[in-house]
Amino acid sequence: MRLYLGEQYHPHEICPAEHWQDILGQEESVSKFNLVRGHFRYNMRGLVAGDARMLVVLREPLRRTVSALRHLRRDPNFHSTYQMTKDLSLGDMIRHPGIMALQRDVQARFLCASNSPSEVSARLLAARAENKEDDAGAFENPPDLQLAADRLEMIDFVGITENIGGVVSEMAEEMSYHPPLYFPFINENPARIDPLQGLSEEELDIVRAHNTLDLQVYDLARELISRRSFYRGMRQMIRGGIYKVPPGSFEVAMGGIMPGSGWYAAEIDGANSWRWTGPGPHCTIEVPLRQDATYRFVMRFSDPRPQGPEKLNVELNDMPIAFELWPDGDHFKCEVVIDQELLSKSFGFCRIRIDTGEALQRGTTDLRPLGILVREIEFLCLEG
User: Fold this and answer.
1) Among 196, 80, 95, which Cα is nearest to 134's?
2) Contact yes or no for 60/160 (Cβ under 8 A)
3) What is the CATH number of domain 2-234?
4) What is the DSSP letter of 27?
5) What CATH architecture does domain 250-381 belong to?
6) What is the pLDDT of residue 380?
7) pTM value surpassing 0.85
8) Domains 2-234 and 250-381 share a fold
9) Angle at Cα 180 formed by Cα 107 and Cα 30, nearest 5°?
10) What angle do CA 301, 302, 307 make, to 5 degrees?
11) What are the b/e assignments for 97-118, b being 16+ CB within 10 Å?
12) Hey, which residues does 158 pair with through a beta bridge?
């Protein structure tokens, strides 16, 4: 990624430092460069230009940890603890408390780093004066899940190494970068095997225990990437005129184009139309709404399954949300309030995901796994 970014700028526009130790005494110069890249924590944000866009790339935490241990053992220039690890087996390294302490929730610690730039530099300069090695992340408070989640939301481009092409394509488009034909990995395991292959359950448990927070952060990052991808897709459909933001209340025509997924084809009988959900256990409705209004989502449906809709769950833009559910004659009604504040944060885009529970086969002639039968979907605009 650093090599790719470097090809998008003239050499004099690129900050040559890739570690905090490299900018000591030159902190004010950082904001003059158009590209700052390297192993920097979130608090580097305090030194770059105010309008800078930020990128972070995360890796699946267990594989990141084991890969780092293997790299540490084979590369004497990777870290100062090489001498401690060079003669140890991977299992010995995993069981070594001192070595594993350096691998505890590394990605969350990078995201949560909050010491001011002046404080970081002062500590590193003091350590240098005493001929001691220190780290820009030393003396930070323990990482916090909510802070890490908030920081991810504030970062413009979030990627994962397991699907690096997604963030590269997004960034190339938004930043007018040249899209790469291919994107090779550097410092890759020469054997090209899964880093976790061959580890015992005991060893895996130790690695998991040192990544409790990172595993949660990684899941949050994947959810954020999915949500942002949805927003981009909706924006493109609006720009292309496929979707338009309705000025007021509206109904989703069950016999028309269904804006979502997890639905069977419409069934029509005269003026009436309906759709079954399935074959999976959930369905979505995805629509653009006004950013300055609150809405009430209303869905009228029937559920002939023995357990009925008792296992129904609803998410709004990937977050669980409270809903009302009550009988309506032979049917049920589900209502959800879509708050204006939430819509303003999502640019007006709304994805309602309904977990209907297990889909079942109804009879011997219709072999489809069916969830619930939906007859009406309406968005009632309540204004701002």
Assistant:
1) 80
2) yes
3) 3.40.50
4) G
5) Sandwich (2.60)
6) 97
7) no
8) no
9) 50
10) 125
11) eebbebbbbbbbbbbbbbbebe
12) 56
Residue 337 phi, psi (nearest 5) = -90, 125
Q: What per-residue confidence (pLDDT) applies to 75?
A: 65
* 286 in Cβ contact with 260 (< 8 Å): yes
- For residue 306, whether the previous peptide bond is cis, meaning omega lies within 30 degrees of 0, is no
Q: 122-138 as b/e, with b when 16 or more CB fall inside 10 Å?
A: ebbeeeeeeeeebbbbe
- Cβ burial, residue 374 (10 Å; 0-12/13-18/19+): buried
Residue with tokens 């448990």: 205
Relative to beta strand 157-160, strand 324-328 is unpaired
Q: Average pLDDT of each block of 10 consecutive residues along the chain (384 residues)? A: 94 94 93 94 94 96 93 69 74 92 95 96 90 83 97 96 92 94 72 82 97 98 92 86 91 94 95 94 94 96 86 92 93 96 91 90 81 96 82
**All residues at 6 or more sequence positions from 365 whose CB lies less than 8 Å from its CB, including other chains:** none
Beta strands in the chain (DSSP E): 55-58, 157-160, 250-252, 267-269, 272-276, 282-288, 295-302, 313-316, 319-320, 324-328, 331-338, 349-355, 360-361, 369-370, 373-381
Q: Which residues does 116 contact at the CB level (< 8 Å), separation at least 6?
A: 43, 46
DSSP state of 119: H
Strand partners for 269: 272
List the domain boundaries for the chain.
2-234, 250-381
Distance between CA atoms of residues 203 and 210, nearest Å: 11
| Residues belonging to the chain | 384
Token pair 């007859």 is found at: 375
Instruction: Identify whether the C-beta of residue 155 lies closer than 8 Å to the C-beta of residue 55.
Output: yes
Task: Find out whether 212 and 105 touch, Cβ atoms under 8 Å.
Answer: yes
Beta strand pairing call for 157-160 and 55-58: parallel
Token pair, residue 25, equals 């005494």
Determine the Cα–Cα distance for residues 112 and 141; give it in Å rounded to an integer. 8
Please give the Cα distance from 228 to 226 (Å, whole number).
6
Of the candidates 190, 187, 211, 203, the residue with the CA atom closest to the CA atom of residue 90: 203
**Contact assessment for residue 13 and residue 29, using Cβ atoms and an 8 Å cutoff:** no
Find, among 208, 220, 49, 226, the residue nearest to 147 by Cα: 220
pLDDT value at residue 79: 61
